[in-house]
Amino acid sequence: MDRELFEHHLTSAHGRGRAPQGAAIGVAGTRLCGDVVRIALALDDSGRRVGAVGWEAEACGATIASLSAVAELVEGMDLLEVARLGARDVDAQLGGLSAGKFHAAELVADALARALGTAVRERGALAPPADGSPRTLVAMSGGVDSAVVALLAGREQGDAVAVTLELWADEANDGERSCCSAQAVRYARALAHRMGMAHLTLDLRDEFRAGVVTPFLEDHRAGLTPNPCIRCNGHVRLDAMLEFADRLGAATLATGHYARVEHGADGPLLRAAVDAWKDQTYMLAALTPDSLARMRFPLGELTKPQVRELAAEAQLPVASKPDSQDLCFLAGTNRSDFLARHAGIEQQPGEIVDSGGRVLGRHSGHHGYTVGQRRGLGVAAEEPLYVLRTEPARNRVVAGTRAELATTAVPLRGARLHRDGARVDRVKLRYRAKPLPARLVGDPAPGPHRRLEVALEQPVDGAAPGQMACLMEGDVVIGWATIGRPGAVAPQPAAAQSSSSG
Ligand SMILES: Nc1ncnc2c1ncn2[C@@H]1O[C@H](COP(=O)(O)OP(=O)(O)OP(=O)(O)O)[C@@H](O)[C@H]1O
């Protein structure tokens, strides 16, 4: 550490208490963990450079000195250059902090990144690439897939800028394991910098809570089995990143999803990835064609082993990082604890009954059961029993045999079709399920009250209300809908028409 420089920043505290007009705020740290810092960053009139910087802190000397050094450093700096700064650069400004004080540089880098991301989102504009090449925004989660996308974008596209979304903070969660927590963002930022890319952080915590977590809790309360990733991709994170891409002058957004896009005369459609096991078209089905037109999925033609190989060849530190498993906001917790903590949905024991109403046993709370589930019923019977449905109003779980569960008719609600529904010849009813031969039947008239149903060629072991039905023609997605409760529709045996709403 350069003692003189450190003392200079500690006493001059450049920018302390300043509150530039129109500044974006970035906060890092909590009182619980010790230091809290708040950086206010205002852009200059061009929107491409930092104007003034101010800050406040309840923190140790190393953090105060780091803040002062950063404020001095970034004033007047081009936003793309600021987006290349990380904890190591903050540290370098003070001639290197001792290992025990490095957290100060990390905290200040976090606050700076948050302030920068908000400033850019609100009114920033990045300078276009000097050589006139197109710019791509790369969605980086810190995992191997998006790291390889960044690698390919860097090689193949002219100019690539990385973005990581901060979606969720839950102190009771193990943030290290969530793909979208503050720690994960920090990791992704360091990875992007290591790969020579500018990196921006986009704080979508409010939008994520309102648009994904709240509906997830409401659906659980109603006894449905929601799929929050579809909502998140379709209505929250990809839309927000595309808007952000506009701000950055990026025509396209590249992600590490395993999917392909088919560009036809009638506009783009999603197509299943080459790697059938990794295929994520189901998760992306709610994307509108307009959004799809700007998306790039560079991994759609690759298999996961090939992706890992590319990462290893490039010596990316994430080459063997395990894939993310569960919903990002459930990392470090479990569904029932989460429901109890965030929605007051407590486990309320009730009856398990057969379809005639005869009591078979007890359950620990209907929210923990989903249609088709076999495990965890704890009921001894001659034949294996499955959940046929849940009845939230009566807090009952109805169980029955596989034959009772089997159905060829799946009611739909809120269908969105990008092509004529008569073209549907397969449906995917769960993320990891195989597409099943099927056709669409229902009211021919498009409109909000339209009733549609999937007619399957072969019976399926139940379809969980609340999950998504991905409507396909071959391996191309031509629409999607939410699976409704049986009995909720009176289908007409007519081919459905093309419509953008259902
Ligand atoms: N927090 C995030 N910020 C930015 N982009 C993200 C974030 N989470 C996911 N993505 C993007 O969505 C893609 C698919 O996300 P998914 O959650 O399926 O992760 P994944 O398959 O584990 O990918 P990865 O290995 O890149 O983490 C990622 O590859 C990345 O491009």
From TrEMBL:
Major subcellular site: cytoplasm
Domain called tRNA-specific 2-thiouridylase MnmA-like central: residue spans: 337-399
Any one GO MF annotation of this record: tRNA-uridine 2-sulfurtransferase activity
EC number from the UniProt entry: 2.8.1.13
Site positions for Interaction with tRNA: H257, Q467
InterPro entries, A to Z: MnmA-like, MnmA-like_C, MnmA-like_central, MnmA-like_central_sf, NIF_FeS_clus_asmbl_NifU_N, Rossmann-like_a/b/a_fold
Region (Interaction with tRNA): 278-280, 430-431
Catalytic activity: S-sulfanyl-L-cysteinyl-[protein] + uridine(34) in tRNA + AH2 + ATP = 2-thiouridine(34) in tRNA + L-cysteinyl-[protein] + A + AMP + diphosphate + H(+)
Localization per Swiss-Prot or TrEMBL: Cytoplasm
Domain tRNA-specific 2-thiouridylase MnmA-like C-terminal, residue spans: 426-483
Signal peptide: none
Binding site for ATP: A139, M140, S141, G142, G143, V144, D145, S146, L165, G256
Keywords linked to the UniProt accession: ATP-binding, Cytoplasm, Disulfide bond, Nucleotide-binding, RNA-binding, Transferase, tRNA processing, tRNA-binding
Function: Catalyzes the 2-thiolation of uridine at the wobble position (U34) of tRNA, leading to the formation of s(2)U34.
HAMAP family listed in its UniProt record: tRNA_thiouridyl_MnmA (MF_00144)
Family to which the UniProt record says this protein belongs: Belongs to the MnmA/TRMU family.
Descriptive protein name: tRNA-specific 2-thiouridylase MnmA
Gene: mnmA
